[in-house]
Amino acid sequence: xxxxxxPITETTTGxxxxxxxxxxxxxxxxxxxxxxxxxxxxxxxxxxxxNPAVADPMGAAFDYAAEVxxxxxxxxxxxxxxxxxxxxxxxxxxxxHYGPLFIRMAWHxxxxxxxxxxxxxxxxxxxxxxxxxSWPDNASLDKARRLLWPVKKKYGKKLSWADLIVFAGxxxxxxxxxxxxxxxFGRVDxxxxxxxxxxxxxxxxxxxxxxxxxxxxxxxxxxxMGLIYVNPEGPNGNPDPMAAAVDxxxxxxxxxxxDVETAALIVGGHTFGKTHGAGPADLxxxxxxxxxxxxxxxxxxxxxxxxxxxxxxxxxxEVVWTNTPxxxxxxxxxxxxxxxxxxxxxPAGAWQYTAKDGAGAGTIPDxxxxxxxxxxxxxxxxxxxxxxxxxxxxxxxxEHPEELADEFAKAWYKLIHRxxxxxxxxxxxxxxxQTLLWQDPVPAVSxxxxxxxxxxxxxxxxxxxxxxxxxxxSTAWAAASSFRGSDKRGGANGGRIRLxxxxxxxVNDPDGDLRKVIRMxxxxxxxVNDPDGDLRKVIRxxxxxxxxxxxxxxxxxxxxLRRPRRARWLCRHRESSKGGWPxxxxxxxxxxxxxxxxxxxxxxxxxxGAQGRxxxxxxxxxxxxxxxxxxxxxxxxxYAQCP
Length: 643
Prior knowledge:
Layout: E1 12-13, E2 16-17, H1 35-38, H2 64-68, H3 73-84, H4 99-110, H5 141-147, H6 149-155, H7 161-175, E3 210-211, E4 215-216, H8 241-253, H9 259-269, H10 331-338, E5 341-345, E6 351-355, E7 376-377, H11 379-386, H12 388-399, H13 401-417, H14 452-463, H15 469-480, H16 513-520, E8 548-553, E9 556-561, E10 568-570, E11 573-575, E12 583-585, E13 588-590, E14 596-600, E15 603-607, E16 628-630, E17 639-641
Antiparallel strand pairs: 1-2, 3-4, 5-6, 6-7, 8-9, 10-13, 11-12, 14-15, 16-17
């Protein structure tokens, strides 16, 4: 008879019981370290080919701008509103509304942005990937994204995760009574995590990024590994509101926020919702990237009670800021300044502050209908009261809540759009008409651009300028190379190389070739500009260079840069015309061509041949200027030519 084999469960292979009957237990190929672990100092070239087109499942022909334009934004808003107000048993909503959770999700998606290298931000939907999806500060946001899955599934490729995550936060504010400043779609999803330096630490909440007294390493903008900004318990868990204010100011500054914007974001964001610290933090399971497969992409599974709802643990802090946690009002500041505070601990053992001597007990509603609570605050909330600058700002808002609403609307808009670049990249019907300074605005093009003949003329003028190829190329390189793809800032558009700070950067050789090229620019382009002389087709460099001569007349202000001595001069004669700008004529030509000019140490005197008369001295007292000015009549705008 053939030999009967034992059941597979009884098969053993040496010491590897219950393993494969052939090889026993083996490590999976994906387990353990790789080349980067063997040679950690090896140059990582993966940053040069992040998110390659071949890895995009949408294909090279996919046009997200065209797809998102087909969305009915009002219908999308209603769909998100329905999700926000429909509590799910697998993750019950505090106060029956997921709005505060969605605000936190959007905030933490955008809040990774940092100014030093433009990395981070909401673009690309990076919160879906490691390490951000597993940062301690992002605990429970895996549930927020899972709640939005029905919306994402409905709209598919028309709506990116990056846009959905942030727009949900915007909708949450509107849903709870706050009027936002606007919203721009246009964030295209990426399909793998960015290669970003988030810090040298190898453990969560490590803080090896500091040196000296409290010097935070560049380009980082968070105080500890795995946090968005600051530790809500205070620096390294030290519940000192004044010390926390130092961290708040520095980290928010590195995210491009000033003191007013910082205070507005904290006050506005903490007007809604609560933190979660119902029980011991050691009962919370691993983050999504470390969680077992059966949790299907979710993490932080808690074994405390039900692990959800009233038993939820996220940060370990148990704070409800206001008595109206799903409504926009001024109650955060009213409570912050309405009580004195004492240091206490949450049920999870985290530091927080509670209204002193039992004041206000029972005035704060429980999220699931339990007994009323006492007012509570974070250590970082009290920073707004004890720091003299934040205190002055927030006390004014206590009396002028309409100013808080305006500042929070603009600060929130900046927070969720700061990494998107120029406003021209914003899409959709909710983009506000107002352009803000932080968006690096440039004048809109409302005129004809140069044609082939004008380009040829410009080329000949540039080649005749006397500047070398090296000087011209290096300046063009310097202007364009300031662009960075991370937050779409910099570049040649706007001609900002002639302005501070770029004009003073050491790498741009500010006192050498750059200055020579900038001084040449006003001379180039006269002939190709509009007949009214507004210099729109080729913009002259106004600048703030010491060589600028300011000539005032007819209520207008003209700026002309000084330039090297040349054999060719530009004659621009202005003839008066009623009811409008003076008409121009003139061209480049050698020599004075009938122009008579004089100078003295009190200013500039000019006579435009027989066409005009001597101009009075200009307000440049004590500054000798050698040069000529050609003008039609006294008091009209004049143009200067300076050797």
